[in-house]
């Protein structure tokens, strides 16, 4: 439920605030609608504001998906599955998700997984080290939880320790 202690902004005020919000960083339609809802704005006024922002390219879900994927691969080292799930939760359409996922540089993606596996293997205690089945299972679960494909995880764990 939106907070009731603040006065609801006018359409012009809300639009101006959202223009500034969208100019600072890339945001999707869902994030903008959530912000409007918090301000107590919904219905036709919210639709008009969102449409205005889209027309003037302050929000573009395709551009958002590309930037989101780039940031998550580059900085957070997420795998494809986790990225797709996060974009779905933001209600980005499948077409945009698929297009942005296709743009992932495969070499960077694989190096990210190798880096994560090496770092995690070093952090495992000696009694469940990466050379044991238990250690390899931990590495596998870790990599899959980061959104990487299971077959790729298995292949890289074998490559790392064989």
Summarize the structure in words.
The protein is 71% helix and 0% strand. With 162 residues, it is mostly helical. It folds into three domains: 11-55, no CATH class; 61-102; 106-161. Helix 1 packs across helix 3 (43-55), helix 4 (61-76) crosses helix 6 and helix 8 packs across helix 9.
Query: Quick one: how many beta strands?
Result: 0
Q: SSE order, as H and E?
A: HHHHHHHHH
Q: List the quaternary state of the chains.
A: single chain
What would you call the shape?
elongated
Instruction: State the helix count.
Output: 9
Ends: how far apart? 55 Å
Kindly state the percentage of residues in helix: over 70%
Main structural class: mainly alpha
Strand percentage, roughly?
under 5%
Number of domains: 3
- Main sheet specs: none
Radius of gyration: 21 Å
pLDDT < 50 runs, ≥5 residues: none
Average of the residue pLDDT scores: 93
